[in-house]
Amino acid sequence: MDSHPDNHTSGEMIVDGRSIQVTIVPLGPANLVLARTDSGGILACGAVDPAALARLGIPAARVRPTRGPSIADGDDLLAGVVTEGNTGSAARGVKPGMTGREAITRL
């Protein structure tokens, strides 16, 4: 991960052979975490609104944590459980209840 002057970090993860760009923004006691796929989909923590991203034409879903009180990094996103997605993510087969890892491979 690369650190930036505004205190966020970004880097690449490879998931099932796909390049996933992960950005982490510290927000005090929690982080805003989102991952963007090589085809433009976004998987994110609960602070990101998939409906707002749908208005921009971006397929997106958010996950709840399964390994602690909040999503802290890309690994937590993959381990999380999808709670909500927008119409773009549904068109790609993303459904509530699937893991973040399953969702990111479809986004």
Write a brief structural summary.
With 107 residues, the protein is an alpha+beta fold. The protein has helices at 50-54, 74-79, 87-91, 100-106; strands at residues 2-3, 9-15, 18-27, 30-37, 42-44, 60-64, 81-85.
Question: In terms of topology, how is this protein built?
Answer:
Layout: E1 2-3, E2 9-15, E3 18-27, E4 30-37, E5 42-44, H1 50-54, E6 60-64, H2 74-79, E7 81-85, H3 87-91, H4 100-106
Parallel strand pairs: 5-6
Antiparallel strand pairs: 1-2, 2-3, 3-4, 4-5, 6-7
Written description of the protein model:
This protein is α+β, with helices and mostly antiparallel strands. The protein has one domain (about 1-105): Hypothetical protein Ta1206 fold, CATH 3.30.1980. Helix content is about 20%, strand content about 35%. It contains four helices and seven strands. It has helices at about 50-55, 75-80, 85-90, 100-105, and strands at about 1-5, 10-15, 20-25, 30-35, 40-45, 60-65, 80-85. It has a seven-stranded mixed β-sheet with strand order 1-2-3-4-5-6-7. Strand 3 and strand 4 (about 30-35) form a beta hairpin. It is globular. The protein starts with a strand and ends with a helix.
